[in-house]
Write a structure and sequence with these properties.
CATH topology of one domain: Helix Hairpins
CATH superfamily of one domain: Mitochondrial import inner membrane translocase subunit tim13 like domains
Structural class: mainly alpha
Low-confidence stretches: none
CATH architecture of one domain: Orthogonal Bundle
Number of strands: 0
Radius of gyration: 18 Å
Distance between the termini: 33 Å
Helix content: 55-70%
Mean pLDDT: 85
Length: about 80
């Protein structure tokens, strides 16, 4: 009988690993969102939508955040991208 699971892993272990991965990704997303929001959005809201400068800042912030996350993953030996 063929199994899709890697050798030595049962369904509970696989489910636990998937939960950990999801928790990691949610934490990463929340940190990225908070970091870029704090850096790019003015504390006094003047308009209901982001202005051009805020949009550009957020784009650059997110790109840099992903680059750093990928570099750290490579340094730690992770073979997969952060997301």
């Amino acid at each position: 009988m063929a199994s899709d699971a890697p050798s030595g892993l049962d369904k509970e272990q696989i489910f636990g690993m998937a939960e950990q991965e999801m928790a990691y990704r949610v934490e990463l997303f929340n940190k990225l969102t908070q970091t870029c929001f704090d850096k790019c959005i003015e504390k006094r809201y003047k308009e209901s939508e982001l202005n051009m400068g805020e949009n550009s800042c957020i784009d650059r912030c997110v790109a840099k955040y992903w680059q750093v996350t990928a570099i750290i993953g490579q340094l730690l030996g992770s073979s997969k991208p952060p997301m």
